[in-house]
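so my prof wants the structure for this chain in the tokens format not the other one, which i didnt know existed until like an hour ago. anyway here's the sequence
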Amino acid sequence: MLTEKHLIIREGTIKEDSLIAKHFYQMWLDIGVDESNIILEWENITLKFIEEARRDLFYKAFIAEIDNTIVGSVSCQLFAGLYPNVLKDEYRKFGYIWGVYVEQSYRRQGIAKSLTNRAIEYLKAIACTRVVLNASPLGKPVYSSLGFSEGNVMQLDLI
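here's what i got, hopefully its the right format
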């Protein structure tokens, strides 16, 4: 495990949006999605999403650095929802964490956990009442160790 003095978690800047997009792309590859199943315009799509989320959903990214080298990132924002939000914020204001990514050679050192904790702190600061994320199989132990509950998503494959 890295000690806190070796690892710096800081807020990402707009200039780093392309790096966040690349991490998001690499995350999909790392969990087994074939490149042929990713839209060629993935970077522009992700950059537009980030821009809109920053404008409308309190989006923030956080960067993990070791010795001035960026080794990971996380994105978080208000959860936009899957249906009209008719509930008061104090009852239900969900935050969403996505794109947790750590370079392969830096994994299993607590960096993903530190990034996720920083995103949680931010979402608490903007008065979210719950944090939601979708975990990859490799990420589940990280999120479980932070107190996230196991999901109960029901699905029906159509293809």
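also thought this was worth mentioning. The chain is about 30% helix and 20% strand.
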